[in-house]
Amino acid sequence: MNMMCMEFLQHPLPLYHFHRSQFSEDKTDSSSSKPNMSADQISYSEKYYDEKFEYRHVILPNDIAKLVPKNHLMTETEWRNLGVQQSPGWIHYMVHTPEPHILLFRRPLPQSNPHPVAMATTVK
């Protein structure tokens, strides 16, 4: 089994735990240089956590998903150019091959102030 698949299997909350109705339209940067109706159809999951990272996934409409590179993970500039809007620090960290229209993002939790959910799992 390849490393990407292994990491997906160890992901804290698999994608099937989320229903499309749970996605928010939380777009933190509303200043887009080019209006695009498809960008308005991008769905953003709520954030979820483990001990080290904050995660979220983004579902792209088909016309934008066709533009996702197949040979590498995207830089912040690349995913922003597709119309994905979220606060700084998110890393496109993995591709789940069966669902290439779903972008998987994560960013490290601050060391000094971990998310309460992550702390709750370690407190006895």
From TrEMBL:
SMART domains: CKS (SM01084). InterPro entries: Cyclin-dep_kinase_reg-sub, Cyclin-dep_kinase_reg-sub_sf. PROSITE patterns: CKS_2. It holds the Pfam family CKS. Keywords: Cell cycle, Cell division. GO terms for molecular function: cyclin-dependent protein serine/threonine kinase regulator activity. SUPFAM superfamilies: Cell cycle regulatory proteins. It comes from the Eukaryota. GO terms for biological process: cell division. The keyword Zinc does not apply. Belongs to the CKS family. Binds to the catalytic subunit of the cyclin dependent kinases and is essential for their biological function. This is Cyclin-dependent kinases regulatory subunit. It comes from Crassostrea virginica (Eastern oyster). The gene is LOC111127096.
